[in-house]
TrEMBL record, chain A:
<dbReference type="GO" id="GO:0006520">
    <property type="term" value="P:amino acid metabolic process"/>
</dbReference>
<dbReference type="InterPro" id="IPR006132">
    <property type="entry name" value="Asp/Orn_carbamoyltranf_P-bd"/>
</dbReference>
<dbReference type="GO" id="GO:0016597">
    <property type="term" value="F:amino acid binding"/>
</dbReference>
<comment type="function">
    <text>Catalyzes the condensation of carbamoyl phosphate and aspartate to form carbamoyl aspartate and inorganic phosphate, the committed step in the de novo pyrimidine nucleotide biosynthesis pathway.</text>
</comment>
<feature type="domain" description="Aspartate/ornithine carbamoyltransferase carbamoyl-P binding">
    <location>
        <begin position="11"/>
        <end position="154"/>
    </location>
</feature>
<dbReference type="GO" id="GO:0006207">
    <property type="term" value="P:'de novo' pyrimidine nucleobase biosynthetic process"/>
</dbReference>
<protein>
    <recommendedName>
        <fullName>Aspartate carbamoyltransferase</fullName>
        <ecNumber>2.1.3.2</ecNumber>
    </recommendedName>
</protein>
<keyword id="KW-0808">Transferase</keyword>
<dbReference type="GO" id="GO:0044205">
    <property type="term" value="P:'de novo' UMP biosynthetic process"/>
</dbReference>
Automatic annotation (TrEMBL), chain B:
<dbReference type="InterPro" id="IPR000836">
    <property type="entry name" value="PRTase_dom"/>
</dbReference>
<dbReference type="InterPro" id="IPR029057">
    <property type="entry name" value="PRTase-like"/>
</dbReference>
<feature type="short sequence motif" description="PRPP-binding">
    <location>
        <begin position="99"/>
        <end position="111"/>
    </location>
</feature>
<dbReference type="GO" id="GO:0004845">
    <property type="term" value="F:uracil phosphoribosyltransferase activity"/>
</dbReference>
<protein>
    <recommendedName>
        <fullName>Bifunctional protein PyrR</fullName>
        <ecNumber>2.4.2.9</ecNumber>
    </recommendedName>
</protein>
<dbReference type="GO" id="GO:0006355">
    <property type="term" value="P:regulation of DNA-templated transcription"/>
</dbReference>
<comment type="function">
    <text>Regulates the transcription of the pyrimidine nucleotide (pyr) operon in response to exogenous pyrimidines.</text>
</comment>
<comment type="similarity">
    <text>Belongs to the purine/pyrimidine phosphoribosyltransferase family. PyrR subfamily.</text>
</comment>
<keyword id="KW-0328">Glycosyltransferase</keyword>
Amino acid sequence: MSEITQRLSSKHLLGIKDLNAQDIQLILETADTFKDVINRPIKKVPSLRDITIANIFFENSTRTKLSFELAQKRLSADVVNFAASSSSVSKGETLIDTVNNILAMKVDMVVMRHPYPGAGVFLSKHIDAQIVNAGDGAHEHPTQALLDAFSIREKLGAIEGKKIVIVGDILHSRVALSNILCLQKLGAEVMVCGPTTLIPKYIHTLGVKVEHDLRKALNWCDVANMLRIQLERQDIKYFPSLREYAMMYGLDKKLLDSLDKEIVVMHPGPINRGVEISSDVADSKQSIILNQVENGVAVRMAVLYLLASQK
Amino acid sequence: MRNLTLLDGQKFQVTIQRLCHQLIENHNDFSNSVILGIQPRGIYLAQRISKELKEIIPSTQIQNGILDITFYRDDFRRGDSPLVPNTTQIDFIIENKKVILIDDVLWTGRTIRAAMDAILAYGRPEKVELLVLVDRRYSRQLPIEADYIGMKVDSISSQKVVVSWEETDKEDKVVLVSENV
């Protein structure tokens, strides 16, 4: 840990956009030590024992919520959980009121998922606690991008110079934007692939390649990140049928085996088996989907540790 | 700034050898003992001690690990700069082993307190002993003492005791650094 700075440049983690390459490297290197910690017989360290963290989820989540909670508990932080569906939000309370009430109970950090883009930024301007964005609408999901970067680095040794294609529902995906920004900052080449209707119109301004032919995209890349079709966010029909989508943009074993080289397959979960990815690919040797989940805890521990150490 | 060399050359070497012989007295062939160097500066002393032990008794197989205590420190969020973690490398089981904890300088005792916490995350050792090259006397903030001591030094808190090693700093020596005296 020699050349890099030892402090994040931001007080919050609102998006990858606010981080520089050094911040990302620092998070990944810190995550290395935490990955070691969570593989010990006793997986817990006392670093954050005087910190209280509120997990506020205005949108459903399994992996991210569990992963954050495990990360917090393994750092010995006190945790309060809040799910909007079972709370006073349904009685008409505003976001700031809800969060201020939680902060009045002396919380140091807030991990929030919200359906509206920019909810984290908004909150950070109005309250005193440190904010970690766990997904804001179709905008950013920074910890997912960091754990994806960590997993690629672990599997291929480095990220710089690697070619990564993000396949599927780019339009509704927060994972896509965070991944693009994160991988580009670390020196990778990024391509997006999907039906025209699911690729945002001006995405090329981010400096990514656009490809509509899945086979061509896969032959170009080292890593394919297969995104889920987010049916719950699609208010109109973007493609004729799931079956047709699966035929044109689904990755199955036959296609994977027919490629020029062996690529790494990733998926941020939850998987729609048989749609964007077939079962035999998801469970194949080339898939690092479960490694991503394991690394998620280490990366989130690193993020919480580094943010908390800034006071 | 004024530097006073406390230990170097042959005396340094003799001190290391004496520590090794004291260890041999208590641990015989080290079959049930392991050495743990504390990051960042204790690992050089740990390496030197185990190298020297192998020269004295060539048949010994000493297990050597390094321990990082960052996450167990009691000054998280209290200092000016963030605490940066180092690697821990313990490739053996310490359950029921005699652990020899090694650091270069014993001062307030807080590092050793954290190290004992860190060790417990790896199991329950039969015994934990502490070996240090320099003991800064009368400056403890916790009730902790070393079992094996290279030399004792009387110093005030504004002074620093710096141990340098041939492997990394070109010379074996212990220096007392005083600022603006």
